[in-house]
């Protein structure tokens, strides 16, 4: 029995190590999700300022925006017509996030079905692996940011890739698909930019005193649209980053519950084996004592 008890105690030690690892991973995921959420108000405030400036431009020159059939304008003055739609899919880079990557790919497939032609841009190695396994042709891919401080760099890299495809004339618009911390999957249009967001969005009313400008209104508006698309990308990436870490935190909580149950089972088994060892030793001593008493009698 002692050999078996030794094995059980070794397994208990391993389970304790797993408890510590899972607890640490849950704490890291919680801190990262909280950090991403604290950055969101600044990004949203930045976008609101841009919309206010766009409202000023439109108040001075209502025809400044080159509108397409959907009432949108291209980012940075680049707008295709009748080309493919870029689908930017933001997925996790690391594991322990449950079924989140599959849900994102499923939503992207549904979004692709709404367009005549699409080009996929994939952020995150998990999504790249799943999409490739489904036979999706990925035009462009890059890893997801490992730290929240890298979000703006990734957004700039992604914006350059989108604008580069639009400059060729092969692409007429872009949509981004990402998760939110509440576990919802969101698909929203980036380009052409919807000017309805300026006239109806919060913080979009024109200033009481219109500013003086030195650029042609159309050029200024195009630059502001490009800046707002960058802000939209930053917001989407921050939400996706928080959602990934929320999913990992949830997975670690479930894992910890399973590990705790395993620990209780092994501890109970070790107690029973230890008790059996004691009982067997007592019986052995008692049997020996009875035998000696019989010989003496």
UniProtKB/TrEMBL annotation:
Protein location: Membrane
Membrane topology summary: Peripheral membrane protein
**What superkingdom heads the lineage?**
Bacteria
Pfam families hit by this protein: ATP-synt
Q: What is its main location?
A: membrane
Q: Which UniProt keywords apply?
A: ATP synthesis, CF(1), Hydrogen ion transport, Ion transport, Membrane, Transport
Which residue spans traverse the membrane?
none
Q: Which InterPro entries does the protein's record reference?
A: ATP_synth_F1_ATPase_gsu, ATP_synth_F1_gsu
Please explain the role this protein plays, according to its UniProt record: Produces ATP from ADP in the presence of a proton gradient across the membrane. The gamma chain is believed to be important in regulating ATPase activity and the flow of protons through the CF(0) complex.
- Family recorded in the similarity comment: Belongs to the ATPase gamma chain family.
Q: What is this protein called?
A: F0F1 ATP synthase subunit gamma
Q: Which organism is it from?
A: Tistrella arctica
């Amino acid at each position: 029995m002692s050999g078996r008890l030794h094995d059980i105690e070794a397994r208990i030690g391993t389970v304790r190590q797993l408890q510590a690892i899972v607890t640490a991973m849950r704490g890291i995921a919680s801190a990262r999700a909280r950090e991403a959420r604290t950055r969101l108000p600044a990004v949203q405030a930045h976008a609101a300022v841009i919309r206010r400036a766009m409202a000023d431009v439109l108040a001075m020159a209502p025809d400044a925006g080159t509108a397409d059939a959907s009432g949108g304008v291209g980012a940075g003055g680049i707008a295709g017509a009748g080309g493919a739609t870029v689908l930017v899919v933001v997925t996790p880079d690391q594991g322990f996030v449950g079924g989140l990557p599959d849900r994102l790919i499923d939503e992207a497939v549904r979004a692709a079905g709404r367009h005549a032609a699409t080009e996929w841009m994939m952020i995150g190695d998990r999504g790249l692996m799943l999409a490739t396994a489904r036979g999706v042709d990925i035009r462009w891919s890059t890893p997801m940011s490992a730290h929240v401080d890298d979000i703006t760099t990734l957004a700039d890299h992604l914006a350059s890739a989108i604008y580069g495809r639009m400059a060729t004339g092969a692409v007429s618009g872009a949509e981004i698909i990402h998760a939110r911390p509440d576990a919802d999957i969101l698909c929203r249009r980036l380009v052409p930019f919807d000017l309805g967001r300026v006239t109806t969005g919060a913080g979009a009313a024109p200033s009481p005193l219109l500013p003086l400008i030195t650029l042609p209104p159309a050029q200024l508006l195009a630059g502001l649209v490009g800046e707002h698309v960058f802000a939209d990308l930053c917001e989407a990436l921050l939400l996706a980053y928080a959602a990934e870490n929320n999913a990992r935190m949830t997975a670690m909580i479930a894992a910890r519950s399973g590990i705790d149950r395993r620990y209780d089972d092994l501890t109970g088994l070790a107690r029973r084996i230890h008790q059996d060892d004691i009982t067997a030793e007592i019986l052995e001593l008692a049997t020996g004592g009875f035998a000696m008493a019989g010989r003496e009698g």
